[in-house]
Amino acid sequence: MVFVITPLYALPVAAIYLILWFRVSSVRSAAGVSFGDGGNPLLLQRIRQHGNCAEWSVFVLILMMLAEGMGTPAIWLHVSGALLLAGRIAHPFGLVPGNAGHPLRYVGNGTNLLAALNAMVCIGIHILGL
Predict the structure, then answer these.
(1) For residue 108, what pLDDT is reported?
(2) How many domains in the chain?
């Protein structure tokens, strides 16, 4: 099976992941903290921005690969991929100290949840033979 749609979204999401990793590493280096956050609020923020990307990206991309492998129509894969990408772009800007209700945090989490649910429904339809 050759995946055609999922890699279109995996590549930019991977680039975002690496950018967020670099942001963690640069603060970690500047602060002289090799493990954990060392009590540095900026480092903690960057660690969580990167961690959230890792958690959601892997989950949704695996679901997309399964859905694509089962023969899900391209449009539904693009829906999940576009939602994932939008969420990965928005979320780091909304994950800020002192504002748990930042709109971009809701956009980031909401779009990723919708991306996962869409892929799950696609997989479920195939499993049930509908």
Answers:
(1) 95
(2) 1
- Report if residue 120 sits inside a domain: yes
According to the model, what pLDDT value does residue 27 have?
A: 96
CA 87/CA 112 separation, integer angstroms: 6
- Locus of tokens 């979320």: 91
- pLDDT tens for 30-56 read 999 999 999 999 999 999 999 999 999
Report the CATH number that the domain containing residue 62 is assigned in CATH: 1.20.120.550
Report phi then psi at 75, rounded to 5.
-55, -40
Q: Which residues does the chain have with pLDDT short of 70?
A: none
